[in-house]
Structures are given as C-alpha cells and as structure tokens.
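SEQUENCE, STRUCTURE TOKENS:
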Amino acid sequence: MPLACIPFSPDPSMAAVREMLRRYGSRIWGTYGFTSGFTADGKWWSKNHHAVSAGLVLLMIENYRTSLVWKHTSSNEYIKEGLKCAGFSESLLTQAVTPAYLEDVRSGYRLQDYPANE
C-alpha cells in the first residue's frame, strides 16, 4: 500500500494512491477505505476489507505529519537494545540503513555495483 510509504516518498506515494483511485475507483475503495487487495491490471479485486494494514497506514501517516511514532520508538531503550541486537546501529542519516547494506558498505561494495543501478 503506497500510503504506508508516505514518510519515505510522500509525493510518489500520494501520486500512486491518486492514480489507483482514478483507474479503479469504487472497485478498490469502499465504505471502510481500500479493499484488502487487487491486481495491478485491475482484473481482480477483493470485496473484503481487512484492517490488517490500516494500523500501519495510520502510523506512517502520523510519522509523515509529526514524526511522533519515530520519536517515541527511537527513544525507547528496549527498542534501541533490540535493534542493536539485530545488528542495526545509530546513524546521522535520515534514511534507514539495514545491517546487510551496512555490511556491503563496510566491505567496499559500492552503490553503483548493485544490479538495479546498472
């Protein structure tokens, strides 16, 4: 769901939502918001609404608006310790850096070496 990506890419995320609504309208949007799924070609869509992703979407929208959730989670000692145990480290970067990416950087693997950038 593009709305869950809004803190990372606000303009493209909103553009994707608008385009999906323009293309598929009431097939993917109903009384309770977006349906639980649909195919990119628009040939199938769910008639159900599941709240599984609604919480994530709400958290990400609030993160985009105020950074409230990130401020609280980044200051929580249990979360910080868990992330440290999982191999994450503190950074001054505004983007997320996974342990795997950090290992690539430490080993000299350059961004332009990634296949997607060829």
Q: What stands out?
A: The beta strands are 29-30, 33-34. The helical segments are 10-24, 54-66, 68-74, 77-85, 99-106.
